[in-house]
Design brief:
Chain lengths: ~120, ~110
């Protein structure tokens, strides 16, 4: 399996709703990432997990709450979002530093297109 | 991580080679050069990476200058499906901060 699977593909939520985005990979990657991408802009890094622990939080508002329950799963919990949070949310995975690990690229999922109304 | 500079857009005729340049004049000795592309409405796709030697895989070739201050991604026979935004990124080995710049929008025309 060489894919990162993101669900749902599309999500419409109200500003008072609570929803979650899910990301799954079975490549044995121990680093996982959340990116946010607005239209016609490059992806922006939000969070990085390494060996299931949060390594990087790029000053993301607390209404976005990441979770890594195991080495294959990454969730992004959403609460009280604003319309400006509407974007494509991308998950990625990669090798993490470790003995014998070779340098390589990230594998991205197709994203969840989120609309906040 | 070092910053990169890429042209905003480029055109290429179908079947011809597409040569996409990238400047990274502040690259550090241990930083790799990575290329990704993003086809409309899809997630970015890893293409190739290199440290100092030229690299080739089934998708593309990467030519890095001897001083490592610039590189060129070569798609040898561009097809319409290669129309995408191409991102050049530099980062430390196994680093966690893959930061995307504006990239180059490549249009392959029939």
């Amino acid at each position: 399996d060489t894919e990162v699977t993101q669900t749902p593909k599309h999500l419409v939520m109200g500003m008072t709703n609570k929803k979650s985005l899910k990301c799954e990979q079975h490549m044995g990657h121990r680093a996982m990432y959340w990116y946010k991408q607005k239209a016609k802009k490059p992806p922006e890094l939000m969070f990085v997990y390494s060996y299931e622990k949060l390594s990087i939080n790029e000053s993301v508002p607390s209404r976005f709450s990441p979770e890594c329950p195991n080495s294959s799963l990454l969730n992004l919990h959403l609460h009280a979002l604003q319309p400006e949070d509407s974007a494509l949310y991308l998950c990625a995975s990669s090798q993490a530093p470790g003995r014998g690990v070779k340098e390589g690229g990230y594998t991205f999922g197709s994203g969840t297109r989120l609309t906040v109304v | 991580d070092a910053k990169t500079t890429q042209p905003t857009s480029m055109d290429c005729a179908e079947g011809r080679a597409a040569n996409l340049p990238c400047n990274h004049s502040t690259i550090s000795g241990n930083e790799y050069v990575y290329w990704y592309r993003q086809i409309h409405s899809q997630g970015p796709q890893y293409i190739i990476h290199g440290l100092k030697n030229n690299e080739t895989n089934e998708m593309a070739s990467l030519i890095i200058t001897e001083d490592r201050k610039s590189s060129t991604l070569i798609l040898p026979h561009a097809t319409l499906r290669d129309t995408a935004v191409y991102y050049c990124i530099v980062r430390v080995p196994l680093g966690f901060k893959t930061i995307f710049g504006a990239g180059t929008r490549l249009f392959v025309k029939a």
